[in-house]
Amino acid sequence: MIVEYPKNEQNKLLPLFSNHKYLSILIKTVLKEKEGEIFVDDIENPNVALMSYKVFEIIGGDSKHEMAIEILRNITENRMILFPDEDWYVFAKDKIVLSPYPRTKFSSEKLSIEKANELLQRELPKECKLQKVDKIIVTKINPKLAPAFLPFYKSADDFVERGLAYCITESDFILSIAGSAMPIHDNEYELQAITDPNPKYRRKGFATAAAAALIKESLEKGIIPHWDADNEISARFALKLGFTKPIAYDAYLCSKNPLK
Fold first, then answer.
1. Do 59 and 168 fall into the same domain?
2. In the sheet where 48-53 sits, what is the strand order?
3. Is residue 118 domain-shared with residue 221, that is, in the same domain?
4. 121 in a domain, yes or no?
5. Residues 10 and 46 both lie in one domain
6. What is the pLDDT of residue 142?
7. How far apart are CA 180 and CA 34, in angstroms?
8. What's the CATH code of the domain at 174?
9. Could you tell me where the beta strands, DSSP code E, fall in 111-150?
10. Alpha helices in the chain (DSSP H)
11. Is 88 within the bounds of a domain?
């Protein structure tokens, strides 16, 4: 029988999800923040687990355990599946309908303050300003940009206190922002950058400037940004910022679960 694991103890499951090589910062943060719904085979001694968070269904534990099939049975259709290893994928591929969803993981080891400073040399339009997001600015975040950040924090103040972000403003309008997608834990975070979709703000270097300023302060404080791309534009942007060693991998979309 699969049961829901107590939310206030989710951080105890970190070892069960430790085999994930990709999006590991997201997984760790969800567990520490106790934000997901997690289902296990045994609350006292869990062997297999399924974490449900936003669009993701993330699997943990031993694919050879007798309850592994029940984890697959609980996977929701049309969600993004992350397997911790090849054994889980081999176990699942003939039981549920999976379509690969290509992603790319990057290394942060070559990020540098020098590279960030180089990117910051490009002048912004006179009417635009690069600013660190503070308690005043965070309340003015463009509604088109806010969903990329604020839902992962308990409040605007929480975003400022436990996150880090820079933005580009035009008067009081925030047209681009780069920041920690989730609260920072263990001096590392997933970097997110987004610009208002209005074409007049595109290809102006706004996201580059905001991300470069963010990377610079992060490195100065001993904090490591990470990048995981889900499309080619995002991958090229990562390389521009100084991320290196792209590794292609697949998440999977579960289009049908015949086990249900």
1. no
2. 3-4, 37-40, 48-53, 56-61, 80-82, 244-256, 97-107, 228-229
3. yes
4. yes
5. yes
6. 86
7. 18
8. 3.40.630.30
9. 128-132
10. 24-33, 68-73, 86-92, 113-119, 156-162, 206-220, 232-241
11. yes
The candidate with the shortest Cα–Cα distance to 12, out of 100, 34, 107, is 34
What residue ranges of the chain have pLDDT lower than 50? none
- In order of 127, 176, 202, 212, 237, the CA distances from 146 in angstroms are 22, 10, 18, 20, 20
Q: Chain-centre distance of CA 107, in angstroms? A: 15
**What distance in Å separates the CA atoms of residue 175 and residue 81, rounded to the nearest whole number?**
32
Q: Is the pTM here over 0.90, yes or no?
A: yes
Query: Is there a single domain that holds both residue 95 and residue 135?
Result: no
Q: Do 57 and 94 fall within a single domain?
A: yes
Residue 180 lies in a domain: yes
Looking up tokens 């970097």 gives: 191
The predicted-structure confidence for 42-74, as pLDDT tens digits, reads as follows 999 999 999 999 999 999 999 999 999 999 999
DSSP bridge partners of 97 = 256
Q: Can you give the pLDDT at residue 152? A: 86
In this prediction, residue 149 carries a pLDDT of 85
* 232 is a domain residue: no
Domain carrying residue 172: 109-226
